[in-house]
Amino acid sequence: METGTLVALALYFLLMLGIGLFTFRAASVNTSGYLLGGRQLGPAVTALSAGASDMSGWMVMGLPGALYLTGLANVWIAVGLVVGAYCNYLVVAPRLRVYTELAGDSITLPEFFENRFEDRTRLLRVVSSLVIIVFFTVYTSSGAVAGGKLFESSFGLSYELGLYVTIGVVVLYTLFGGFLAVSLTDFVQGCIMFTALVMVPVAILYDFGGFQNLGEAIDQLSPSHLDLFAGTTALGIVSSLAWGLGYFGQPHIIVRFMAIRSIGDIRIARRIGMSWMIVALAGAMATGLFGYAYVARAGIAMGDPETIFIVLSQVLFHPLIGGFMLAAILAAIMSTVSSQLLVTSSSLTEDVYKIFVDGDADQKLMVRVSRVCVLMVALIAIALASNTDSSILTIVANAWAGFGAAFGPLILLALHWRRMTFAGALAGIVVGAGTVLIWVYSPLTISGEPLSSVVYEIVPGVLLSTVAIIGVSLAGKAPPQSVRATFDQLPGA
């Protein structure tokens, strides 16, 4: 590895650890400080930390790799994500920020569900926390896979070492600083990702002498790469657009809405977040598409298409800048992993340990338990990521669908439909998560094709979850007056 690259990466790691140490004191006061930053996040940090934790390694590795392989037909995923993220800011953020505070100052989503529906059985809280723990542990493993591939393809080091280094640094700053450290590091990482995803396609565009020459080069290699509809079907496009449905149920993203300083800051956060997202996604797609032409012209042998950003960052720039580009990949990976670790830890601490082990534990002990849970989940994620053939995009797609189907309809209806009941909420979680698992892992086929290859599992998952919530809610008794009275205090009620 070049000295300049090594220096850039070392500075990046030191910065991340420094932020963790800087926020250690504030995070150690109580669980609200460690798990939710005391609800004092500003709009810029909220927006970029939500974006960075959302996009993860799939944006700098999975998405460019998909564009490299099949071209513009993958743009529909980005379109669905942009629309979904914008709607998330509009219909979820304001009400969730207010409602989680009104509902017993809820720190986690499972706690909010319990308080929202006045569930004395605690069944809803336990089931929703189990969904978070299972799907997030799998989701976290996608970050470990991305880290392993980065170290293997860029540094010639072992895949396993990449897993340990990537997860190790994340665990350290998450252990030290909790939610505040995660959010501040996400902000820095979001800035790094944004810059890198602009620089790479701009450099290729300059090298080809403009869009016309670049477009002609791609067209000569594969005309289908410039066709929005090549190799896809109507159901395929629906499946890609349906990625946007997942936003309403992603705990690591919407927890930022719970932590923002005030409801008035949400509009500013939306403008910053959506601008960042649109440019970053465009840069990621351009990296894969433009890189397809550049690699062919330069005669570069490409092994794994998901490493196209890594390859380009090393051949297009000085080693010091190349190190900065590799830091962008680590930023994308680590920003999501840290958020997922913290949300999973919060569920294990607040929704499992506090309920079943020690309900009277003091705040200092709860913070220590949270830190132990962070380490435990990280070790399991490393074990799951031991398969070197794992596809980042596939792992993310499955976990994204699981959360989107289990929690998306539940959160939307819980915030906007006062008639929704506890039984309806529980049915929505079980049906949504169960549908995704069946769709992905069952031996059932349609015309000989696996179910997930016909239509993305989030589509049937969200539809059936919504039907279950509405049907079961209407079949039972209306919620008590106390629930409806709280509902009347929400923005726009």
UniProtKB/TrEMBL annotation:
Origin superkingdom: Bacteria
Protein's membrane topology: Multi-pass membrane protein
InterPro entries: Na/Glc_symporter_sf (IPR038377), Na/Pro_symporter (IPR011851), Na/solute_symporter (IPR001734), Na/solute_symporter_CS (IPR018212), Sodium:Solute_Symporter (IPR050277)
Segments crossing the lipid bilayer: 6-29, 67-91, 123-141, 161-184, 191-208, 228-248, 276-295, 315-344, 365-386, 392-415, 422-442, 454-475
GO annotation, cellular component aspect: plasma membrane
Record keywords, A-Z: Amino-acid transport, Cell inner membrane, Cell membrane, Ion transport, Membrane, Sodium, Sodium transport, Symport, Transmembrane, Transmembrane helix, Transport
Keyword check for Cell inner membrane: yes
Family: Belongs to the sodium:solute symporter (SSF) (TC 2.A.21) family.
Protein name: Sodium/proline symporter
Taxonomic lineage from the root: Bacteria, Pseudomonadati, Pseudomonadota, Gammaproteobacteria, Cellvibrionales
